[in-house]
Amino acid sequence: MKNYKNLDAFWMPFTPNRAFKENPRIVTRTEGVFCHTDDGRKILDATAGLWCVNAGHARPQIADAIAKQAHELDFTSPFNFGHDIGFEFAERLIQHTPDPLNKVFFANSGSEAVESALKIALAYQNSRGKSGKFKLIGREMAYHGVNFGGISVGGLTPNRKGFGPLLPVDHLPHTLDLENNAFSKGLPEAGLEKADALEELIKFHDASSIAAVIVEPISGAGGVILPPKGYLKRLREICTANDILLIFDEVITGWGRLGSAFAAVEFDVVPDMIVSAKGITNGIVPLGAVFVADHIHDTIMDNAAEGAIEFYHGYTYSANPVSCAAGLATLDIYEQEGLLTRAAGDIGEYWENALHSLKDIEQVVDIRNYGLIGAVQFKQPAGTTAPIGGKFQVACYDNDVMIRAMGNIIAFSPPLTINPEEIDQLIAAIRKTANELF
Ligand SMILES: Cc1ncc(COP(=O)(O)O)c(C=O)c1O
Question: How much is the pTM?
Answer without folding.
Answer: 0.98
